[in-house]
Specification:
The complex is a heterodimer. Among the domains of chain A are: about 80 residues, no CATH class; about 120 residues; about 190 residues, MetI-like fold. Chain A has 19 helices and 13 strands. In chain A, the strands form three sheets. In chain A, strands 6, 7, 8, 9, 10 and 11 form a six-stranded antiparallel sheet that branches. In chain A, strands 4-3-2-1-5 form a five-stranded antiparallel sheet, with no helix packed on it. In chain A, strands 12-13 form a two-stranded antiparallel sheet. Chain A is flat. By secondary structure, chain B is α/β, with parallel strands linked by helices. Chain B is globular. The chains are: A alpha+beta, B alpha/beta. Chains A and B meet through helix 15 and helix 16 of A and helix 3, strand 7, helix 5 and helix 8 of B. The complex binds adenosine-5'-triphosphate and magnesium ion. The site of adenosine-5'-triphosphate has 10 residues of chain B, from helix 2. The site of magnesium ion (MG) has 3 residues of chain B, from helix 2.
Chain lengths: ~575, ~280
Amino acid sequence: MADMAQMSDDYSPDRSDSAASALSVVTRRKASDLTARGEPMVWAMGGSLAFGLMMILGFLALIFWNGLTAFWPKPVEVVTMTDGHVIAGEPVRTESYKPQKDALEALPANLRASIEAHGGMSTRTLYRIGNYDFYSNDFQWVPVFNVKKVERPGDLTLVERQEWGVFIGRLVSISEDGKQMSISALDAEHDKARALRGKRIAIETDEVGSINRQINALRLSVRRAEINYGQGSPEANAEAGRAAAETAKLNLDFDRLSQKAAAARAAEDALKIKVAEIGGETREFGLADFVRYYDANALSLLQKFGVYFSRWYEFLTADPREANTEGGVWPAIFGTLVMTVVMSLLVAPFGVVAALYLREYAKQGRIVSLVRICVNNLAGVPSIVYGVFGLGFFAYVLGGSIDRMFFPERLPNPTFGTGGLLWAALTLALLTVPVVIVATEEALSAVPRSMREGSLACGASKWQTIKWIVLPRAMPGIMTGLILAMARGAGEVAPLMIVGVVKLAPALPIDGMFPFIHLERSFMHLGFHIYDVGFQSRNSEAGRSMVFVTALVLMVLVLALNAVSIRVRNRLKRRFAGDKF
Amino acid sequence: MAAAAALKQDAATAIDGYDPTVYHPVTSPSGVEISIRDFRLWYGASQALHNITMDMQKGMVTSLIGPSGCGKSTLLRSLNRMNDLIDNLRVAGEIRLDGEPLFGPQVDVIALRKRMGMVFQKPNPFPMTIAENVTYPLKVDGVTNKRLLAEACEAALKGAALWEEVKNRLNDSALGLSGGQQQRLCIARAIAGNPDVLLMDEPCSALDPIATMRIEQLIEELKSSYTIVIVTHNMQQAARVSDNTAFMYLGRLIEYGATKEVFTNPRSKRTEDYVTGRFG
Ligand SMILES: Nc1ncnc2c1ncn2[C@@H]1O[C@H](COP(=O)(O)OP(=O)(O)OP(=O)(O)O)[C@@H](O)[C@H]1O
Ligand SMILES: [Mg+2]
């Protein structure tokens, strides 16, 4: 009964006394000092949060302001210089600068003195003068001391053109086939010219393009027959004969369409407009080349809104022009969207299955920890490295084998053997899979043990438990991982530049042509578009506003994708995690 | 009766330096459902169960009582091998369900668990509708016949005395039920699979007295069709619902006997101290 005695010891009444005396060894201080209350820490935490928020808000405000105002029509100023030279342009911005010495020396003494009084600083204004075909320059700095007077005449027109950027000047007259017409008929004639142009482009791209595709398909079928049956074999010869006959027929169609296109072009070219730049030099343009025009200084507020929204509409729905610095970004929006969706479709099952194995089936031990550490560290590999891997492995190795197996007749032109949407999506899936794995593992381990036990106690197998209980419960957490992965993938540019993004894609990755989804095609991407417009174009000043607008669109797109997935997640959450007692 | 005498012998020899289990359970005319022989269990290096030997009678309620940490849950969870989920677990000795061994390489754990329903301390309804919760064991068995599922659902809910309260909201989420309703739902789920044995680990610890009373009534009604093993901290509850009571202490089975006797006339000093509230 030794342990009985011990037990009664445990429950002896004087135990509480000894406990009390143990507590009174230390006399407690009654007042708490500053460090104990943690006030400095609270200030530091609040301060860091405020600092971070301010950075983010400032950044967002910058992009939103610049993006939203970029398309607002600005006034056009006519500046007369002291030397009699006249320019017309949109003022872009004004800054203070230090004029060159020789420029200063050419100035009258009183001006020079006033500049020197300001420490040699003066101000200058950047004007967007347009008319690249007249001046070989889009922008011009005007120092304030050279300005004699600034006016805003109401009859100056700003024209956005299909080529050569904007024109600023006066519209003189229009003519059809050399027959002069009153300038008041401009709007109607412009509509007519644009309609003619639309028709011609439809002929050139759709109809002629379709014939070209058919001819190409015939050529490929001959090559295929040669590869399958051997060159000179009866089958190949038969195929060649059939193809030749068909091609001849198609060539006739082609000639007919070319004539039709030429006629359309002639009708379009007959409509001309004569313009004069501010210095008085006149030229004649095709009226169909005008995209949009307005009298910059005579716009009512309503008309300004009209121009603003028509520019946004063009931006969101049209193809780019002028080396991407003008026109729309529709192909880039579409490319980004399709790529992100394909990436999510690839990364979601892959990441979830991998995490399931790691968390639920693999024996938790050193190897699994090692794998986990490796997966987490994959997120730290520079993304360009993924790009190189994507090109080397996916495009060249995988794509190359696919080409050799399924498209031998097209070689040496690659089909899948070069960068394309599928490989880009796979590369980004690889890049973002650690995020999904980590989030999924966390979500799986957060499923309460009692749920699993409840299911197992009902006689469910492990797989049934995972399928019916664990995965649905973990779904909101998995979705969070997917959202993070999506946001990361949609904003990634560097690896894409290597595996399939191009400056200008000839066709969208999804269109009306069989098999409708062309994952092998190269595509455009908003992130790359920003880089291209901002840093690779002829004129970075012209691309500047486009950078902001494109960044705004990319941000809104990512936000929209996230909003959709967050909605889905919240619905799942409501369904699966509403604990209530 | 010879078997019982042999068992007493077994129990007496199994103990190393401790008093042998005081053994005087009521026996059931329909025989023994679960027989435990010299069962020992280790969590890693620490032994949680020492030489447990007892028979649980068919169609009777056996309650397990004892101070916290004495191994009641461990023993209960060994019965349907819920402990398999725990790493570094080791067992020795033998448990038989209806004569068939529970531990062994040939045992089909899933089939075994289908013969036992389990109700946990905290209600753990699945994040599904009420009907889906109740019919989960049938879903596991691959039953898809809608009519069959509906019938089983109604029968189980009636069996768990929940039908009247939820019959109009079978397709609502089970998480919207009150705690007591959730626990009865879990009981319904446990009996929907038509098991032989019901294992209950402190089923009333999260409930108010009225809900507790309902569940006790339920146990009373279920007792005719199932063998029930219930862990409880509530001595009155054990006295009210069970036929046999097992008192455990520090991983050992101190006394196993007819409930009435264990509470009114305990044969072991430790049992007496515990049931009279002198410790624990
Ligand atoms: N997963 C585990 N790993 C290690 N030790 C465990 C584990 N589960 C239980 N134990 C230990 O085993 C012993 C018995 O635990 P058990 O949960 O069976 O007690 P109990 O009688 O159910 O107590 P309570 O009345 O508090 O529920 C305790 O000492 C406990 O610390
Ligand atoms: Mg317990």
